[in-house]
Specification:
Five copies of one chain form a homopentamer. With 371 residues, chain A is of the alpha+beta class. The first copy, chain A, has two domains: 286 residues, 2-Layer Sandwich (Beta Polymerase, domain 2), CATH 3.30.460.20; 50 residues. The first copy, chain A, is 55% helix and 14% strand. Chains A, B, C, D, E: It is a multi-pass membrane protein.
Chain lengths: 371, 371, 371, 371, 371
């Protein structure tokens, strides 16, 4: 129960204020203090440092040939956004999109930069799905990423930067953007894998006993799958947009790698559809098992009732007190229940009862009710 | 019940008269007296006044450089429409569209103006969905809006004009049109959020007790969702049409903002689909809970019947009155119910009954009926 | 029942003969004698007369500047079709399409004329849906319409011609064609409105009592909706074809009006979809109500059976006839049903029975079965 | 049962051998000896003869101006295919397509001929659906048709050739191809009409009594509809391909007629969809009727059980044998069942029973169980 | 059960590691030692040998005019991939795709080669579906195929090479690629045929007895069909891509054959859809049969209970012990159960019981419960 509610809240927190002016930085009490990390990459050399302000950073970007990756986590600093608007020349509509963290994945090109949004999905400790936004501002030799929370799933990219193997240090800013997006998509697939396991486990429980929780749990996963599908589809479109764009900020060789991320995204969508089919089939199985159980319960009731109710009736007949003789005149009334006074009346009655029961058992057997 | 009926009426009131001539101003007894408000905006300066007639307004529009927003609420004035047709040069088909308030959202370009229709959705005090029409006539430096009722949801736009912050006073007539449309779309999302809450509340009741009203209420919301979807889709297309049009009345920078409204519209459609999925899943849950309850009811019935009916039969057997001795001859008939005359007959019978009951309980336990 | 059958017949009568030669005038015994009406329109002047033959009409059309509308109802006259083929120059495939009255709505252009088909839907006195064909041949200043039956729904067009208001007398032949098509589409919406009312009424009955006829009636409307949808979709395409065609027979200003008819057609489709959703939801409601009723019935059965079957068993126990004393020796057998001989045996038994019943009632109450 | 099985076999016989080489003539034991018929048409003159070999036919085709139609039924003659390959210049892939009679409808153009495939559907005497292939090779003034079986549905074309009316003798080879295809499509519609009748008849039985066979029969028709739909869709595409092709073998005026066949094909698809809807609605009706019957059965059981079980309990009470006096001491035990010794005990008991029964009847009446 | 689990594992093994660097050869403990087979084809001559290394092969390919087909099964050899990368010039992203054996069917063109992926489906001995990857590298006169396992379904291609008939030895490398792909698609159809048989067998069991396993087995096949559909669709797209590509490695005449493979792929998809419909209809049949059985069970219960419960009540009435005379005063109490003392009381009672039973039987007969 609590799980499901959390999910819906996530959906609804994403609603903008009705009628508010566009282009406004959107901060509330839950906004976090910004944490800044600056990665400087130039082939062999790579440094990463936490910084307090990026006041002089734009200067370095413009004047050196290094690749910069500036990570911004937490938005609670209006001066920071002023700096971005005035020094970096970021459009205020872009800044609004960054801080209103309910955007769908998209890719937009501006004169001096390109802007992209990814949705990062993670399972927190309570196995709830967290849906947060990662925004990218991509410039010639710099990438700025924005996250509303501190926790993320892109540590592998930082690790690969530290390790320095492969293309990561020489691919430029757009390659790092690709790497982050790819990790995010891979996380989708990882989460889907976990749900796949859960669906299998539910299926095992289903075979065991069709209990109410199966319905709840499967519906919950199905609902999660619907949410993730709503993220994966625009994600796919976004990567396609990036591949087909002729933005100068996207290096040609990066596009080859993006094809890979695109394939992964399609794989994720495939997996979502396939898990959805499995959950629907689980629910169908569950409902059919309830019907079958009902059938079985009814068969037990019907067999026992059908056998014993007529027998009880016969016993009731011979439990009647019709008088053998008139209590006043003492005259014999031979028509009243003569069976009771036959020497083998009881025996015959029991034999008849046994025959009736056997006949019914044979009938039910023939109908296949014992199979 | 009454809610649902109101809704259908709304749908049907929207039907035009069969075979009436096109281009006819459509007024009936429920039409309201027009209320006119004229907003004059020129950057720093902003005035808003209620006027009785806009006889000289067209002259001002043509001769000054200010931006005009003329709000018309209520249509019961044929001279007003004559003025619009003759002085403002509005096509009579456009005027018909304005007064026949059942148009789908659309955008049409004419030589001297552009015409657009939005559907304004609001919840009234009885929580019923009101679906009214807002029509826009956009000229070079003037916007005329038309509403059939006095109540609306676009007060935030007027407030922003009064406050004067942001682009609202300097964006021109097309920006104000965008602002009104955006508020209307935001209201969709707000209403959807309310239904999301209602669905959650229904879900809680569902967990509690699957009662008939859950089905009614969910179906009602589902039907509302269908209605709103029929509004949101053409709305999205309309905004797309405006963005792609090369109408001289739409400023270039307004189109950037319209992209934002377009995104909100897609978000609304997303939310509608997602709520629809939730309501379908609620109904599925509900039906499965009814099945499960049926199963439980039948289990209780079957367990109790299966245990007691055979026992009652045994009791019935020993309630039979087969005679121990022939009433006439007095001869003993030892075959008739000798158990009744055994010193421990009662005891043995009770023991057999207990064994039978225990065996059945064990059987049901094994079948998992007590889980 | 009879209603539904009539409908299916309509569908099947529309099948052409397998393997017949194309371009053949198709007349059978049910064909009606032709009734001809000629309308001559020239702005202020308008005359309408029933004629017996249109032998000289083509001559007048060619030589005067008036607008002609020739209405032909009933096809039982081969000479008439010869005249059309030879004098008016109508292609024989067109004539076949006119007489084989099962065509889908379509628009075809020929060198000397344009050909269009509309499907006219009307409810007859028995509230059955009549689906007949109206064919149009449009020439420079003449429109010929063909109907297989005498009854139609286009009287409003004739009335507007008589009244002479609006564009009807000055719009030319293509405007009259538009007017007829528009009336036909408006009739769709009118019929749909009627079904909407019927669905509401069914819904009320559903709330009252879920009886079998609800299923029948809803299915019938659903089936009608499917039929009308199959007409409305190609109708929409046809009007779109006319609007986009550059046929010289369609005046430019008529196309603006056709946009209006197009919008009405989309509205009709919208309404169909919406009524279909409502009928599906009615059926769902109905089935869920049957399930709920079943639950209630079973609860009554289970409560009463569960309470009284065990009590009856106890009563049965003390109705057994185990003997207190050996009938032969007269020896007391104290183990046989000593309860029967206790001074308060009856009282205790009744008290136990009441306790059992109360416990069960409490159990059922807790399970929520009385809610 | 047997019907359904036959159908599935048809589907599976259509599977090619895995990994066989392409371009191989595919003959098996069930192949029939070829029957050849040559039609020569030249306007007024028309001859049709059965021939044994078409050795010299190609020569005649090349040298005379007549239109030839060569019908080949049965493929068991490799020399025939050699002749076709070497003399007529037919590609061996085409010949494979002709003999592997499981192709979907298609149209392919080659340099010296055009190739088309139609699927001929017929009901045999056991009312089973036969799905066979008709292949067409169309050359300048010759048409060759191929059928695997002797029975077909294109007799009307031969009859029209004999009659000589209409375009059939003067339309050229492509017109004859059109005529054959059109007859095949008309046969689809005829078969669909038959199923429509069957569905109606099933519907009548459904109203009468919801028995198991309704489900079987409806499912069978539904499955047939699925098969025919899989044929009708590519057929439609094929005819569209022919219409849009600029093949020199298709005369221009034939394309006008093909538009007619195309319309018929769309009508067939319409009819299929409509029949599918009807069969789905029949199944829904059937399932709802089962539910309703269940409700009725349960109501009977519940009413009778609820009335008589409590009454039986009361009778059971007064059937108990609590002793009036202590059998040993003879002391009166007035607490034991004093009712039994009241002068009107029986009367009061019966009155109470009647009241209980009436109260329950009123309760059930109020619940609407007797409606 | 075990079957289904295996299947899901297959799905999940296909997930890449989150965040791993792209372009990395992916080998794990389950990788097999490579087995290399080199086929050299030059029209008449054809040799096939197992080789240990293909160190000098690239040299031969470049210098001779023969067609080469190098089969590589098992990937556990990094030097092999180095050779491919450095000598053959294969892109490392391609090599990653070859070793990450979870790719969807696709076709990619590079400067010196074309790359394609097919998914090979086979049923292993336990009738489980094995889904493995076959990758193709196509160069001017050489084809390299990659398989992760030793077992495959493409033996027919090798056999045709050995036999030397048809185009196989003269069609070049692209023809061999086509031949392999075509065999793979034919295997799909073969597997589908097997499932078709299984569905028929399930259907027979269904007619026999609706047992739980029918639901399981049908769901299992349905799930398999979903998997195979997810493979067949991109396969179709891939073949279309190859046909439309202007890659120099694809000979023109090969494309004609690819059209054939494309048709087979569409046939497979058709068959999948058709089998899916059949399995859905089986499940529907199954659920309806459960409902019908429930109806029958309930009818038996209701008939027997309704007949005997009232009769038992009557017997209970006359089993009551209302006293005929006051035990204390000995006064006669004539109102207490006078029936018991009537000479024909028993007879009348039995007659009444028989009449009641007969009336109920007639009622049930009329309701059609015995049909």
């Amino acid at each position: 129960m609590s799980k499901r509610h959390k999910k819906l809240e996530v959906n609804q927190r994403c609603l903008p204020d009705t009628g508010s002016s566009p282009g406004v930085i959107y901060l509330d009490d839950s906004s976090l203090e910004p944490k800044l990390t600056l990665h400087r990459i130039s082939g062999a050399q790579y440094t990463s440092e936490n910084i307090d302000s990026f006041a002089g950073v734009y200067e370095s970007i413009k004047t050196t040939k290094q690749t910069f990756w500036l990570e911004i986590k937490g938005f609670k600093s209006l001066p920071m956004f002023d700096l971005l608007q005035n020094e970096f020349g970021i459009n205020k509509l872009t800044l609004e999109d960054i801080t209103r963290t309910h955007e769908r994945p998209k890719f937009e090109e501006f004169e001096t930069y390109a802007f992209a949004v990814s949705r990062m999905l993670m399972l927190n400790e309570e196995k709830e799905l967290e849906n947060t936004q990662v925004s990218f501002i991509l410039m010639d030799n710099a990438l700025i990423t924005f996250q509303e929370h501190y926790v993320d799933c892109i540590q592998p990219v930082r690790d690969r930067l530290t390790a320095g193997k492969g293309t990561i240090r020489i691919g430029g800013a757009s390659y790092i953007m690709y790497a982050v997006m790819d990790v995010i998509i891979d996380t989708y697939i990882e989460i889907l894998g976990g749900w796949g396991d859960e669906l299998e486990e539910i299926e095992d429980r289903l075979m065991d006993k069709p209990e109410r929780s199966i319905m709840y749990d499967t519906q919950l996963i199905k609902r999660h799958l619907i949410s993730i599908r709503r993220v994966a589809w625009p994600e796919k479109d976004k990567i396609n947009d990036i591949m087909r764009s002729d933005s100068p900020f996207i290096q040609k060789q990066t596009k080859i790698y993006l094809k890979d991320a695109y394939d992964h995204c399609i794989q994720a969508i495939d997996l979502i559809d396939s898990l959805k089919e499995i959950s629907v089939s689980n629910i169908d199985m569950y409902l059919s098992m309830i019907s079958i159980r009902m059938n079985e319960i009814m068969k037990v009731l019907t067999i026992i009732s059908s056998i014993f109710i007529p027998l009880t009736f016969i016993a009731g007949i011979y439990g009647m007190n019709f008088s053998r003789e008139d209590p006043v005149t003492g005259k014999l009334m031979p028509m009243n229940m003569p069976e009771l006074y036959s020497p083998h009346g009881y025996l015959y009655t029991v034999i008849i009862m046994v025959i009736m029961a056997v006949l019914q058992l044979v009938y039910f057997q023939k109908k296949g009710w014992f199979k």
